[in-house]
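pasting STAS/SEC14 domain-containing protein for the record, 144 residues
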Amino acid sequence: MPIEVHYDPGSNTLFGRVIGDPAPDEIIASFELVRAAGTIPVDADIIWDMRAMDFTALSIERLRDIVKRRKKLNTYRADCASAYVVLGPQEERMIRLMIAVSVGVQRREAIFRSMDKAKSWLRGLKTPQTTVTAPIGGGTTPPP
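structre below
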């Protein structure tokens, strides 16, 4: 199968590995199977490992079709983040184009060249941020 999908409940992250040149129907079918299982929370973030994907057949028309289908899938996903792991600048440009024309699909998306960096980014989104205030006169006040 050109797309392998698995869920890690410990990190509440869905992992999608794209291999070769999958058709848009294959991409959607993979996620419909996961969704139908009913075991994945709607707020699960996703990491797309696209390092084994063949980007040479990805035309603008095909990209538009994928975006249209993403919008359909977005109707049942909560405010999730998507990280894309690619090999190089050409693949990164294609994903940036997809994100640019996907207005209204995702709120937080980023592209990385390593799986570790993608995982780290998602962990950072899930970690509450501590605010440090600076009192008048300089210095810092430790958080409460």
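Residues 81 and 107 are 7 Å apart (CA to CA).
Confidence is low (pLDDT under 50) at residues 130-135, 137-144.
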